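Table 4 source record.
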Amino acid sequence: MPEDVVDSLFDPLVGRVITVLIGFLVIGLLAHWLQRWLTRHIQNRRTAASVRQVTKFLSYLVAAALVLTVFSGQLPGLTVTLGVAGAGIAFALQEVIASIAGWIAISFGQFYAVGDRVQLGGIRGDVIQVGVLRTTLMEIGEWVRGDQYNGRVVRISNAFVFKEPVFNYSEEISFIWDEIAIPVRYGSDHHLAREIMLKAADAVLSTTIEGMKGEWDRMCSQYPVEQASVEPRVFLIANDNWMQITLRYPVDAKRRRSVHDELFMYILDAIAETEGRVALASATFELVAAPALDVRLQSGHRPE
């Protein structure tokens, strides 16, 4: 073996680099094993996701501490150089630094987790990955109605958590309130129409209401919020053209469109069975008056 190669192997700097690389390998293996072990023993999805993020962050801290420890003897001579370089790097990578800070806030602040339906920076979708720099969403809406996937995958900088509101549809409680409204013609039996709406809600939502009540009670015990009713309710408003009957009810944010379909199918079938006692209204226009039209015909001589 050449003498210069032997000397390079025994160089202190090379030894430190090898030590750091071996340390990175050990830290990575331990972090991977710890994540799998903790995930296997934690049943709650949100807690398991937070534990994985925390474990990853701690492994980065240990790796940084290892580098500082191994190269501590050479750092004093590089203080000025590192300071100037650090200031330039911080200015050039301020968005990256903000994204990393956002990732830390997301991991420890429980803004959202994988599987949550959120709105970030005006974009709505389901969180499918939370990375160090970006959050990945499966987008909903836009040209597709009913809060269903449109097929686009969107990656958003984690720095958004410091700049704009974060809307989470499923963090503290697993449901949102929704409404559907039907126009009923004047002269219809509005009491029967209200009864049809409530029966539709009971037929479609009865199996999920009790669990939602428990979630809302826990919400009220933790936060100073109004004790709102989770039971489906019906409201009637009379306007110039018809009576508008609105059904308000709780629903899983990811099932809004399917629940809409089931409710409307039940309501339309029930209205058809009333044999005209309840009739749906449509926009009508009444012509109150029209100016008189005076048409006069005059005969004249045709020029020769």
